[in-house]
Every structure is written in structure tokens, then in C-alpha cells.
Prior knowledge:
Shape: globular
Largest sheet: 5 strands, antiparallel
CATH architecture: Sandwich
CATH topology: Jelly Rolls
Structural class: mainly beta
Number of helices: 1
Number of strands: 12
Order of helices and strands: EEEEEEEEEEEEH
Strand order of the largest sheet: 1-9-6-11-4
Radius of gyration: 15 Å
CATH class: Mainly Beta
Distance between the termini: 24 Å
Amino acid sequence: MINQLAKYINFPVRGDERGSLIALESNQDVPFDIQRVYYIFATKENVSRGYHAHKALKQVAICVKGSCRFVLDDGVERQEFYLDTCTGGILIESMVWREMHDFSDDCVLLVLASEHYDESDYIRNYDEFLSLANKA
């Protein structure tokens, strides 16, 4: 179950007899201006990713193929859930620790970000994250 740590977003599926299409637009389907798009693929078996939070950046994560498991943590509550459909994604707010595990062999995880890459926005130490999260 996803609650305050992330919001699940269902995307409108369009299509006809030829197939389906999902179009994502800033400030409509995605609740922010999209400044950066990246995707993670060919993740090796038993490899986990993430292990960081962002001070300001917001993201929408979409598993466009395959599946993976997310662990989200706001410093008080910790939740885990699976992404395994291309017709929806999760909105991850700023100041949420994220970890990604159990990538299927065919997993392609697409991420839409509210900001351009900025290393100074990352919190890569969990204890530092907890300290900052508990001050907020």
C-alpha cells in the first residue's frame, strides 16, 4: 500500500485496434515540470540501486517493462512495494529515502525528474538523511 511516502498515479491509456499509447505531459499527467528523464536497465542480478534521498527533487518512477521493488522511507515510516506495470507510476516527493531491489532481468525503470541533475541535492548517507528528516 502506498500512502504519504508516495502517490500512485494511473496514466490514461489511449489506443485503438493497432495498440495502446500513453502520453505524459508536464503539470498534467506528471505534477511538475519535467526537467530530466532517465531510465535504468540491464541491472545485474542481486544488485540494488538508489540508497539516497533528494533535498528538493521530485520524481515519478515508471516500470515500463518487467518489475522491481521499491523501499521508501521518510525518516519515520518505511514502506515497500512493487512496480510491475507501464500504465502507472509512483510520485516520490523530496526528502524520501529510496532503495530499489529485485530488478527482473527485463526491467526498464523510467524516471521523470523535476530538476536537472545536481549532486548537491543528493543525501547519500542514511544517518544524515535521518537527521535532516527529523528537523523538517
